[in-house]
Predict the structure.
Amino acid sequence: MRRCFPGKRYNITLLPGDGIGPEVVSIAKNVLQQAGSLEGLEFSFREMPVGGAALDLVGVPLPEDTISAAKDSDAVLLGAIGGYKWDKNEKHLKPETGLLQLRAGLKVFANLRPATVLPQLVDASTLKREVAEGVDLMVVRELTGGIYFGVPRGIKTNENGEEVGYNTEVYAAHEIDRIARVAFETARKRRGKLCSVDKANVLDASILWRRRVTALAAEYPDVELSHMYVDNAAMQLVRDPKQFDTIVTNNIFGDILSDEASMITGSIGMLPSASLSDSGPGLFEPIHGSAPDIAGQDKANPLATILSAAMLLKYGLGEEKAAKRIEDAVLGALNKGFRTGDIYSAGTKLVGCKEMGEEVLKSVDSHVQASV
């Protein structure tokens, strides 16, 4: 994670990707530029293809030029990847393969996904107000190990002539330790509670996970550590989400639980994420997909990508003041009643992707300090 010096100029790689990605990245770029300029920051942007867009352009989901540009930058802002058009491609030619390769290439192992129910949007949640109100949690997901990357993996024909698909859930001790440290440090900066989610009653990899996380807890006496099986965690997230502060878990469990947590907030279109490495550029992206069904129709919610730009500033560049400007500007636009379709409710003003972006920009310019 890089830290800044006043007046720095930063190189940002933009990866708009597919579907609504280009729409939301374009807006987030403008907000990032405006907030940065108010804090004396300059950005140099380089836009590169990835995912389906790269497949159509050069035939691979992650071109060499793209990963080289990403590695050479100070931070990477990604839109979305995937779409129906490429669903039948072979695995190595699927857009999602490009995303996995990008994460591996940047060596980003820690994925931070906040899920906060804003007071302005509490009624957008599908949960009862008394359950959703006040939810503020962070999912710390291990991103480059586990069943998504483990070997052996594949599809083969067994001795009976039947096809068999198999994957391997595997974690080395150092992989568990480094993600656990990120989680403990994150919890320490929040409310001091960490829940480690595993399936240690069934999976050997989870038994090691629990053992390593428990051992590390001695180094963080100010953090209260608990453990929970993933099936119970999935249930508790909708039953009583306020019990959670920081959650740490493996790749596949984190993938699922963070999406579940997103719906507590009322819309997956509201949630950003940060993927960090030990050193080098971080990868910042909304957790929503490419939504090809609404692409190009000015219906997308750009707020998750705008908030990802705020995380880029905060966690990627150490520019917390500029990040706060963006966070306040988003709250300012919401306080004025502007809503995209996914978070719309009676009594608010329905706007499209572009207009929502314009309202956030106005809030940045007017120095609106919104209350949370």
Notes: The chain has twelve helices and 14 strands. The two ends are 27 Å apart (CA to CA). Confidence is low (pLDDT under 50) at residues 368-372.
